[in-house]
Amino acid sequence: MTKYILSTIAWVESIAKKEVEKVWAKIIEVRDRMIEFEGDSKTMIKVNLWSRVWNKVFEVLAEADKIDTFDKLYDLIQTINLKKYFHHSYPIVVKAKSINSKLDSTPAIQKITKKAIVDNITGKSWEKVFENSELEKFEIMVLLIWDKARILLNTTWEALHKREYRQETWEAPLKESLAAALVLLSDWRFKENFYDLFCWSWTIAIEAAMIAKNIAPGLNRYFAFERLLLVDKTLVEKELEDARKKEYSWEYKIIASDIDENIIEIAKQNAKDAWVYDMIDFRVMDFREYISPHPSPLPEGEGIATPLKWTLVSNPPYWVRLKDDNIESLYKQIDKLFRVNPELKGWVITNYLDFDKLINLDNYKKRKLYNGGELCYFYKRK
Ligand SMILES: C[S@@+](CC[C@H](N)C(=O)[O-])C[C@H]1O[C@@H](n2cnc3c(N)ncnc32)[C@H](O)[C@@H]1O
Predict the structure, then answer these.
(1) Which residue's alpha carbon is nearest to atom 27 within ligand 1?
(2) Is the CB of 338 inside a 6 Å radius of any atom of ligand 1?
(3) For 134, which DSSP code?
(4) Which fold has domain 176-217+253-381?
(5) CA distance 165 to 269
(6) What is the pLDDT of residues 69-85, one digit of tens each?
(7) 136-153 pLDDT, tens per residue?
(8) 258 CB less than 6 Å from ligand 1?
């Protein structure tokens, strides 16, 4: 059995743990933004393909306590059989993180580690060193915590939140992994329609659709494990094939609306690339049209019920660009949206921390989260 570590975004470790358990990996420990588990190559491939809320999956190549000198670090790396993993032409980047440890100079740790890796792969015959810079890189990470060193191989390469479907936009949307976490943290169990009334690039809507249809988020992207010498290519093909067969059919609707239509063409393409375009019904609309007076702005039978019911997960703006509006009145209206639609199950994520002052907190539950390092709260209307 091999030991792996996966890194997660903060405060969603419980969901990440469930996702690891789903692929039958054995959990060793859950810590702040990190889960250690045991398994084999198949488990590692599955975890990479199916994880929605994690960042990277690392294989633990070696670990030891009391690594407090560079000689000890060098010797630890010599205990690994790196030739099993890499051809000597593979370019390898070394990253390092040191927390409360004697070896605390990151550049020096990286330099020694790189030397130790090259010596290990080439048998100290430096003339054999030839890193082909045209090949995709591999990443080895040295993690030192209280002098305990872990030498980690990144099996994922770019963080898992980077699904292939999303094109860059000129405003920073939510990361895909956080959007998926919000859908999973809501009580939506896919047996009813779903709304995002502030949808911008449709990230929440696309993740919701992928979850509802059981589409593996790692399909159609490149992973470092695909090129590791140790990993059997037929196993990779089989796992990809199995993942493609796991898609469900799904009969409900995802309704995504936003007041701004500027990004619509990009958002549509994102949804097409994620194979969920047909599941999302997009509308250009001010969410206040749902507040009052009822009936809804749409004719009966056009998909949106009057008043609103089902599940809403949204990421409202943190500042308001519209001239006649301000952030306080917008958030008061969000609260009103929930009050006038008692059957709507509503969740909003925001870093507008004054929301607390505008609402009766007895009507909400809130949970801490981070969006790109920024403190946010995910409010649930009770
Ligand atoms: C923080 S962004 C949402 C980002 C989105 N979650 C994503 O990942 O792309 C907030 C969105 O609210 C929209 N918005 C602002 N006022 C609105 C209103 N009155 N009704 C509907 N949408 C509004 C903005 O146009 C903006 O796209």
Answers:
(1) 200
(2) no
(3) T
(4) Rossmann fold (3.40.50)
(5) 8
(6) 999 999 999 999 999 99
(7) 889 999 999 999 999 999
(8) yes
